[in-house]
UniProtKB/TrEMBL annotation:
NCBIfam families cross-referenced by the UniProt entry: PRK14135.1
UniProt protein name: Regulatory protein RecX
Gene that produces this protein: recX
Record's keyword annotation contains Cytoplasm: yes
Domain RecX third three-helical: 155-202, 220-260
RecX second three-helical domain boundaries: 108-149
Residue intervals of the RecX first three-helical domain: 62-101
Stated role: Modulates RecA activity.
Localization, UniProt: Cytoplasm
Annotated family: Belongs to the RecX family.
Length: 270
């Protein structure tokens, strides 16, 4: 039966030790495995014992790899499992490492889910549907998704929806109100808010433009439409196309008529 003839600490990794059997290097182990199996010089190792030690060391390697992965931010169990499998650890080794991580409190899908909900509702202002999709992608079970989202109250959801609406209004102050409302709707839908929530927000926002702002908006949209159509149309056809385009953008008919009249006067040389 092979005999341990030498145990030496590795220079590059002080937590790992080289094991020599019958004066020949056989394998290396982490210090926790060394202690667990009470490996000492002069100990005999049969093949079964050697395989058990190597298997335990693989688990320790996977465990430490996972700890490094978790040191950057919290991860879900699925994320850790996927990462370890990518590093070519065996399925059984990965599952054992995950059991140890969970037992020691390094891996907890419930705590992870709660943290993800807090982060996404406070930092990104996402709606419940988008957050639930994020949880799903992280491999969180349905019941934990529901439990974590209970902390995201309807009041908080509507407050975030209104914040997004107000942000959209501020960043589109040169757009017609109808266009701004469409952008609010698109933003809230993309962020994962429900149709009912979007409707409530739109019914509560007020977007006003004074006379000078309307003049600037009308001129900007009108000139853009005029340039787009004047290569294909002329006269009344051109004016009708431009008028339709401006109306679709939410510009009032009174403003459109003023612009069209101005263009007609320019054509007539006034």
């Amino acid at each position: 039966m092979p005999l341990i003839t030498k145990i030496s600490q590795q220079k590059r990794d002080s937590e790992r030790y080289n094991i020599f059997l019958d004066d020949q290097y056989a394998f290396s182990v982490h210090e926790t495995v060394l202690v667990k199996f009470e490996l000492t010089k002069g100990m005999e190792l049969d093949d079964w014992s050697k395989d058990e030690i190597v298997y335990s060391d693989q688990i320790e390697k996977a465990f430490n790899r996972a700890l490094h992965f978790l040191s950057f931010r919290m991860r879900s169990e699925m994320e850790v499992k996927k990462k370890l499998l990518e590093k070519e650890y065996g399925e059984a080794v990965v599952l054992e490492a995950i059991v140890k991580l969970k037992r020691l409190g390094f891996l907890n899908d419930e705590a992870f889910s709660e943290a993800l909900v807090r982060t996404e509702k406070n930092s990104t202002l996402k709606g419940p549907r988008a957050i639930q999709q994020s949880l799903y992608k992280k491999g969180i079970p349905k019941e934990l998704q529901t439990q974590a989202l209970e902390e995201y109250t309807m009041e908080d959801q509507m407050a975030n929806a209104m914040k997004l609406a107000e942000k959209t209004i501020r960043s589109n102050n040169s757009q017609p109100p109808a266009q701004v409302k469409q952008k609010i709707q698109n933003t809230l839908a993309r962020k994962g808010f429900s149709y009912q929530q979007i409707s409530e927000v739109l019914s509560n926002v007020t977007i006003e433009r004074d006379e000078e702002e309307w003049s600037d908006i009308t001129s900007a949209f009108g000139e853009k439409a005029w340039r787009r159509y004047q290569s294909k149309y002329s006269g009344s056809d051109l004016r009708q196309r431009v008028k339709q385009s401006m109306y679709q953008k939410g510009i009032p008919l009174s403003q459109i008529d003023q612009f069209i009249e101005q263009k007609r006067n320019e054509e007539d040389g006034y």
